[in-house]
Design a protein that fits this description.
The chain has 17 helices and eight strands. It is an alpha/beta fold and about 450 residues long. It has three domains: about 140 residues, Beta Polymerase, domain 2 (2-Layer Sandwich), CATH 3.30.460; about 140 residues, Beta Polymerase, domain 2; about 140 residues, Four Helix Bundle (Hemerythrin (Met), subunit A), CATH 1.20.120.330. The strands form two sheets. The protein has a four-stranded mixed β-sheet, with helices on both faces. The protein has a four-stranded mixed β-sheet with strand order 7-6-5-8, sandwiched between helices. Helix 14 packs across helix 15 and helix 16 packs across helix 17.
């Protein structure tokens, strides 16, 4: 297990609704929860120390026997329904069991089969749990088993994880929890439109870090849209679905960003035919949390080598390399022609305007800066005017085609000079303002002297 995986762990929750709710519980209930927490902490520490490279997550499961409906179904029980039958002794014993789910990464299993790994680890983990407390009943599940259940459209384990409370988590439990809750919300509102809901990204490839996004994508059926355009359908549903993602994050307390991609079925199919690498990656690595029979056949066809890029798609991707290089060259030239040029030209014109000169044309700016600030006022050094002149020349050469290419080294020099120039111009502004203040004071003095002299002359004094 990587250091990043170790870094992301969830502690055992003390009680629902935080410390305040915990304090309001009866003393005997508080004591019972505290004892359970202490035992689970010991259990978690023991198995993670022994099987650190295999354990992906440990979660406290809801009580085995519950008459209430699944929380994600959001149903209510009517008051007119018959009361539940009295508990039997064995049922009461089951209710006291502490159900624990242990998720095991079997991707690196080479010395034994995946089933043998599950049985071996499961037996040892169960034995360790019994030593701590016979009531702790761990259920060991390997990732292969979890993903295969999704491929078979069996989502019981996902629902179980969604209702569980993480004790130890490298990131996958949180991803499954928020994705399952979000999927339930989306299906409740838009089930007739949703073709597939798929978990994808670095988590499934074993490359996730503690701060990795949780990547999911949805495919929306747009083949029977009549009241709006396909683009309008996508935009409308996308906005609502992403909003539900934020709501799912608040409900679950998962801090990692739920990165949601929404595709309409026709666009997804076009991308598949054009061999879009993103779509191929989604098909190869994605695990369906909901599928109406489209995603899995495509995934299997890709695995069988039946989905192949067309000749047109190959040519398009071959040509995209040259197009991207030309785009890079254009952006580099644009930096020299526009960005660094205006970065120092505009402040230069501002300095001249502050001095009292009307806004000059770009080609006149450097010469005026030299005449006024270098020669006349001696406020500015010649090297800064040369920086401006060089920048104007580069832009002119690129614009007229006498200079075809700009190198990264030349761009670095232009940016470095622009930063140096702007720093000096800021100082020049202060110098100009100081001179202007002195001129204003001198003007006020001359005005006052003239007025006093005129008044004395009127009164007959020379």
């Amino acid at each position: 297990m990587t250091d990043e995986k170790k870094a992301k762990k969830s502690s055992t929750p003390e009680a629902p609704q935080g410390e305040g709710a915990f304090q309001k519980l009866p003393p005997e209930v508080q004591e019972k929860l505290k004892q359970i927490k202490e035992k689970l902490d010991v259990f978690q520490k023991k198995i993670t120390e022994k099987f650190d490279q295999y354990i992906v997550g440990i979660a406290l499961l809801p009580p085995k026997r519950q008459n209430a409906p699944h929380p994600t179904q959001q149903q209510t029980i009517g008051l007119d329904q018959p009361a539940p039958a009295p508990e039997k002794p064995e049922e009461k014993a089951d209710a006291e069991e502490i159900g624990i789910l242990v998720l095991v990464d079997d991707s690196d299993s080479k010395k034994m089969t995946k089933l043998e790994l599950k049985q071996k680890l499961g037996t040892i983990i169960e034995s360790m749990a019994t030593e701590i407390d016979p009531k702790i009943k761990p259920q060991t599940i390997i990732l292969t088993e979890l993903w295969q259940s999704c491929y078979d459209a069996k989502y019981d384990i996902l629902q179980l994880i969604a209702m569980s409370a993480p004790i130890y988590d490298t990131g996958l439990l949180a991803a499954i929890k928020i994705a399952e809750i979000h999927k339930t919300m989306v299906l409740k509102k838009f089930e007739r439109y949703i073709v597939s809901y798929v978990l994808s990204g670095s988590l499934l490839r074993g490359q996730a870090t503690a701060t990795s996004d949780i990547d999911v994508f949805l495919v929306i059926d747009d083949t029977d849209v009549k009241k709006m355009t396909r683009a309008e359908l996508k935009d409308k549903l996308r906005a609502i679905i992403i909003g539900m993602g934020f709501e799912a994050g608040s409900l679950t307390g998962v801090k990692n960003k739920l990165n949601i991609q929404v595709y309409i079925l026709t666009d997804f199919w076009d991308s598949l035919r054009e061999a879009n690498p993103i779509i191929f990656t989604l098909l190869r690595d994605g695990v369906p949390f909901y599928d109406r029979g489209i995603f899995m056949p495509w995934k299997q066809l890709l695995k069988m080598g039946k989905i192949k890029p067309s000749a047109e798609a190959i040519d398009m991707f071959m040509n995209s390399g040259d197009q991207m290089l030309k785009r890079i060259e254009f952006k580099i030239k644009e930096i020299g022609m526009e960005d660094t040029y205006y970065a120092i030209l505009t402040p230069s014109q501002a300095a001249l305007m502050l001095y009292g000169v009307p806004p000059p044309a770009p080609k006149e700016t450097a010469q005026l800066m030299r005449e006024i600030f270098v020669k006349k006022e001696k406020m500015l050094e010649e090297e800064y005017v040369k920086i401006l002149e060089n920048n104007i020349k580069v832009r002119k050469d690129l614009e007229h085609g006498t200079k075809k290419v700009m190198t990264g080294k030349e761009i670095d020099k232009l940016v470095e000079d622009a930063q140096k120039f702007l720093k000096r111009i800021q100082k020049l502004f202060t110098q100009i303002e100081t001179v202007k203040e002195h001129e204003d004071i001198s003007h006020i003095y001359d005005t006052v002297v003239t007025v006093v002299r005129d008044v004395l002359k009127i009164e007959g004094y020379e």
